[in-house]
Amino acid sequence: MENFSSKAYLDMELLRFTTAGSVDDGKSTLIGRLLYDSKSIFEDQLEAVKRASIQKGNEGINLALLTDGLRAEREQGITIDVAYRYFATPKRKFIIADTPGHVQYTRNMVTGASTANAAIILIDARNGVTEQTFRHSYISSLLQIPHLVVCVNKMDLVDYKEGVYEGIKEEFSAFASKLAVKDIRYVPISALKGDNVVEHSKNTPWYGGGTLRYILENIHVGSDQNHIDPRFPVQYVIRPESDKYHDYRGYAGRIRGGVFRKGDRVMVLPSGFVTTIESIDVFEKELEEAFPPMSVTLRLNDDLDISRGDMIVKENNVPQIEQDIDVMVCWMNEKPLMAGTKYYLKHTTKDVRCMVKEIKYKVDVNTLNRITDGKELKMNEIARVSLRTTKPLFFDSYRKNRQTGSLILIDEGTNNTTGVGMIV
Fold this sequence. Notes:
Elements (H helix, E strand, L loop, with lengths): L1 E2 L2 H4 L4 E8 L5 H11 L5 H13 L15 H6 L6 E6 L4 E6 L7 H8 L4 E7 L6 H12 L4 E7 L8 H15 L6 E6 L23 H7 L12 E3 L2 E3 L11 E5 L5 E2 L3 E5 L3 E10 L2 E3 L1 E2 L4 E6 L10 E4 L5 E12 L5 E2 L3 E6 L2 E14 L6 E2 L4 E2 L4 E14 L10 E5 L6 E7 L1
Parallel strand pairs: 1-14, 2-4, 2-5, 5-6, 6-7
Antiparallel strand pairs: 3-4, 8-17, 9-10, 10-16, 11-15, 12-13, 12-17, 13-14, 13-16, 18-24, 18-26, 19-23, 20-21, 20-25, 21-22, 21-24, 25-26
């Protein structure tokens, strides 16, 4: 097979970010402004938004309508579902998850934020830090989003006063000291007017930082992945029915941690057999090394019994192997979670059954206080829950690896996803 650089294969210039804030803080307007000022809107989209703006009686273009795609959202003027939008600048590609601000849509925010590199927390300059700000910041921290950008919005409505911005920054910083987020940036903006979104504003001469777009373009995401602990959950065994590849046996999947190189000694779980990597293949080409989030096929020197759900790791760096696990669960179903209930559990490529042993405590996401007398977990609530699985899982803590530390719970009767969990 032909060799080629793995760097040419993997495009690291993609940033996934989510937006969060209280109702009417201007999340959809901000995303619309980013798209509009970055010239990332098709003509037909722009025409549709212009028509909708006229129908709503707006004087100019209502940029929020670019993301509020559901008819119910446009009629109510709120965001309900998670709206994904894509745009690019010469420096980077972006995927945006515009998530709802309402308490009853906490599960939607968790869904949109689960794969994000960064979160934009919007704060209305007139209202300052609110309970919803605490809620969204805590969830961002719980989901281990590495970078937070706090946008103090609607600065035009407080006459661009530096004191208002600094007061909000100080209050949020005091709360953020309790969170597990290391990188927090602050920027004063007006999404409606465009101040400090894409272009620097003359209305804030006292602000010496970058615009929101500049910050998003320059956030370093290369170190967000775990490149220390090699983890390769096997998704599919490749045995081509072809004379050309009659003796080919490869294991396909996505690397969820660490770096794998040709010739590395690896261990296969759960068997514990040790072998070496013969080759790392992708698109009929061969790589010298591979790392997250690359999807590749590994060929091994020994013919072992390996199937979907097994995991290839380094023999001197093995994940936890347990049937009893504690997880922080965000419940997404109308039917409450209770101790003794059984579910299907999906973790990386492994599917098992599990039982809820205990709800240890619920979290008040507005105050971060623990509630220990809860016997059930209702929709949009978050709790620490003990589970027992029918087969051992190969996992790391969510704090250590977001990929191997996360799981979902599925209703046995309906196959609906009922909860998402972060292993603690």
